[in-house]
Write a structure and sequence with these properties.
- The protein has a five-stranded parallel beta sheet with strand order 3-2-1-4-5, with helices on both faces.
- The chain has one domain: Rossmann fold, CATH 3.40.50.
- It is 47% helix and 21% strand.
Length: 146
């Protein structure tokens, strides 16, 4: 969707947030996009549980991670509200790229915004790039913020 000046207008933007510096930069970019148009944002954080997360200690670590992310997401939501932007937040469990794409489909996002951590060639070879996987699977536009 475009407006007269050729600028894209996104009604619903999904921000993939993991607490990293690239994710914080992506949040700032989302606020710029939304305040220059009309729309709202959904913020998703994905916790990737260990395949060995069967014991009680792993469950405690997972709960603490979700709690910490919840606190960070509340701060982002307050900043968005202060900027006059409607927002929703969600925490999901699973593979990050899959959950980000699924969240975008669930909330009918027009745009997915994610940060890019970099991590070097070796890390990308072993782990893969979440942003690349989102680009490959997304049903809508994707903006990767460096």
């Amino acid at each position: 969707m475009t407006c007269g000046g050729g600028l894209s207008v996104f009604r619903k933007i999904l921000l993939a947030y993991d607490g990293s510096e690239p994710a914080r930069k992506a949040f700032e970019r989302v606020l710029q996009l939304v305040t220059h148009g009309s729309g709202d944002i959904a913020i998703v954080a994905v916790v990737r549980p260990s395949e060995f997360a069967l014991d009680v200690e792993a469950q405690t670590v997972l709960e603490n991670a979700c709690s910490d992310l919840g606190t960070q997401l509340e701060r982002l939501q307050k900043r968005a509200q202060f900027a006059g932007v409607e927002s929703t937040v969600m925490v999901r469990l699973g593979h990050p790229a899959q959950q980000i794409v699924r969240a975008a489909q669930d909330c009918h996002a027009d745009l997915i915004v994610t940060g890019r951590r970099g991590g070097g060639r070796l890390a990308r070879w072993f782990l893969g790039s979440v942003s690349k996987q989102v680009l490959a699977r997304a049903h809508c536009a994707v903006l990767v913020v460096r």
